[in-house]
Amino acid sequence: MSAGSDSAVGEQPAGKPKKAAKESKSANRAASAPEPGPGASTGSGAPGGPAGQGESSVPGGPAAPDAPDAPAKPDAPVKAARKQAARKQAVGKQAVGKQAAPRKAAVKEAPAEPAAKAARKAPAKAAEKAPAEPAKAAKKAVAEPAKTAKATKKAVAKPTKAAKTAEAAKPAKKAVAPARAALKPAKPESHVAMVRRARRINRELAEVYPYAHPELDFRNPFELLVATVLSAQTTDLRVNQTTPALFAAYPTPEELAAADPEAVEQLIRPTGFFRAKTKSIMGLAAALRDEFGGNVPGRLEDLVKLPGVGRKTANVVLGNAFGVPGITVDTHFGRLVRRWKWTDEEDPVKVEAVVAEIFPKSEWTMLSHRTIFHGRRICHARRPACGACPIAPLCPAYGEGETDPEKAKKLLKYEKGGFPGQRLSPPPDYPGLPAPPLEAG
């Protein structure tokens, strides 16, 4: 074998390329070797003779000039084989790498469920640890309102006995509250709105009490003047039951001025404060006799000069005996106009002035009668019958009294409640019954 071929063979890689190189070398050798002639020896020739065609037997000597063994042609298949092997090796490495990657992933994913769970929890724990402080603070912030809400729910869920009692008492108040809310304006009522409401109340009362009148029995201005003075601190009914005997004994101012005070006291005793009232009626009788010729004057300025006569009495006499409009501010009138929020004044003179600005003068007298009628029959001082009031929607004080309609009906008085009125001789259009005399009462 030549040195060149040895070196070529020595450089070939192991494996299949090596086998291919050997096979190609053997083929080259078989093709290049000449067939031996007859008698030719396979060994070396005689000394000094020409070298045999074959390998030299001299150790270390030069190789025989075998032309066919040395050419580079046999290297072409070797190089091709090398390249092919290198390509296969590269492709194999890529294939192995691709297969190894899924295998590694499979190996990572292969662990049992506990390991997988642990692997899953690990990032979660890391994520939880990172914002641990804000998360704890947030949880505490959420937990605190939650605890408060739970405590509130428990407090609401378990009401005390006092709360139960308050809840039981609420329905009655709730029944009144909507009506008050509907009647009371959200904003302070303007003066114009109040005037309109007041005049509407007057119109409503005119429909409810078309028969309103003075509830004192009288036949002339003198009897009305005396009866009005006696009505102080008592009822019109009691006065009406007392005056028939008085006027029968003393029908004129002159006769009453000349009467025995003790006899007069006995006649008017049922009205109360009889001694003071005796002085008043006898004094005004004397003033009428001495200053006005026994006649009742028709001017406010003259009437208020008489003993025991004030603006209220003077307006009653002027409005009902002389047809001069006047506002009668008695206890009923003053109470109702304050409930209706027409005024907050307590002084009768100031109340009269305020009301006089709200209504035209032509309405003063009848307004007084209607208001007093309503105060005596429905809008009582202590327990008004709100549930039976025809002007409840216009009343700011609705709900101060009984709001149940059935219970409120039982509080009505006089003709509204089916009872006799106050006059023994009422007007013909009065729908109620006349009052009984004193003896029958």
In whole angstroms, how far apart are the ends? 170 Å
Largest sheet: none
Please tally the β strands and state the result. Answer: 0
Mean pLDDT, all residues: 76
| Computed CA radius of gyration, to the nearest angstrom | 67 Å
Question: Can you tell me the overall shape?
Answer: rod-shaped
The arrangement of helices and strands along the chain is HHHHHHHHHHHHHHHHHH
β-strand amount: under 5%
* Secondary structure: helix percent: 55-70%
Number of helices: 18
Low-pLDDT stretches: 1-20, 30-74, 104-119, 121-135, 171-178
Q: What structural class do the secondary elements suggest?
A: mainly alpha
Protein name: Endonuclease III
Organism: Streptomyces crystallinus
Keywords: 4Fe-4S, DNA damage, DNA repair, DNA-binding, Glycosidase, Hydrolase, Iron, Iron-sulfur, Lyase, Metal-binding
Cofactor: [4Fe-4S] cluster
General description of the model:
By secondary structure, the chain is mostly helical. The protein is built from 18 helices and no strands. The longest helix has 35 residues. The protein is rod-shaped, with a radius of gyration of 67 Å. The N and C termini lie far apart (170 Å). The N terminus is likely disordered.
Give a short summary of the structure.
By secondary structure, this protein is mostly helical. It contains 18 helices and no strands.
Attribute tags:
441 residues; mainly alpha; 18 helices; 0% strand; rod-shaped; disordered N terminus; HhH_base_excis_C; Endonuclease-III-like_CS2; hydrolase
Topology:
Elements: H1 3-10, H2 16-32, H3 75-109, H4 113-129, H5 132-157, H6 161-183, H7 191-208, H8 221-230, H9 236-249, H10 253-257, H11 261-268, H12 274-291, H13 300-303, H14 311-321, H15 331-339, H16 348-358, H17 364-377, H18 405-409
Helix pairs in contact: 2-3, 8-14, 11-12, 15-17
